[in-house]
Design a protein that fits this description.
elongated, binds protoporphyrin IX containing FE, mainly alpha
């Protein structure tokens, strides 16, 4: 029963994280092509959502590790879950550091009368790192679902 509840929260928080972050690069590009007021509103909204997505990412990790504990711990656990945990830690850390700080810099870049020069490079940087996060997330999803032997 506990296992089933944890599994439901586990999968739902992963869905929330992926769905909520998928369109970030496109939305940043659209924001940077807009006039400064609209860009500011868009980017501030993205930064707010980013904080919620950090919560969803943490829930994926928390419920994942709890599932492992309910299953009897890490000893003897299939290697795919060890790899999945490592990849998940990497994309969560990327989100909490470089993605978050780049988004904050983008918000700052839209505070004046015009979008600050350099914002487009920040946008590219954000796209690159969210792309890496999504690749790691996708590999982990495959590892979660691939039953070997
Ligand atoms: C990108 C992140 C992740 C995604 C999308 C994800 C997705 C999933 C999915 C869809 C399942 C259901 C699989 C099934 O019942 O066939 C699952 C189960 C599970 N996940 Fe994850 N997961 C992620 C991260 C993690 C992490 C970091 C851990 C911790 C080690 C973890 C541990 C588990 C465990 C123990 C199960 C239950 C496997 C079983 O049925 O015995 N997951 N996950």
């Amino acid at each position: 029963m506990l296992f089933q509840f944890l599994l439901i929260f586990h999968v739902m928080s992963a869905m929330l994280w992926f769905g909520g972050t998928m369109s970030v690069p496109r939305r940043v590009r659209l924001a940077l092509d807009s006039e400064v007021g609209a860009a500011r509103a868009q980017l501030e909204g993205l930064a707010r959502e980013g904080r919620m997505m950090a919560g969803a990412g943490f829930l994926v990790l928390f419920t994942g590790v709890s599932l492992v504990m309910v299953r009897g711990g890490f000893a003897g656990l299939d290697v795919r879950f060890h790899i999945g945990l490592t990849l998940t830690l990497i994309w969560i850390i990327l989100g909490a550091t470089v993605v978050r700080s780049t988004l904050e810099k983008l918000v700052q870049a839209a505070q004046g009368d015009a979008i600050a020069p350099g914002a487009s490079d920040l946008g590219k940087r954000l796209s690159m790192f969210t792309g890496i996060q999504h690749a790691l997330f996708t590999i982990t999803t495959v590892l979660m679902l691939w039953r070997m032997g």
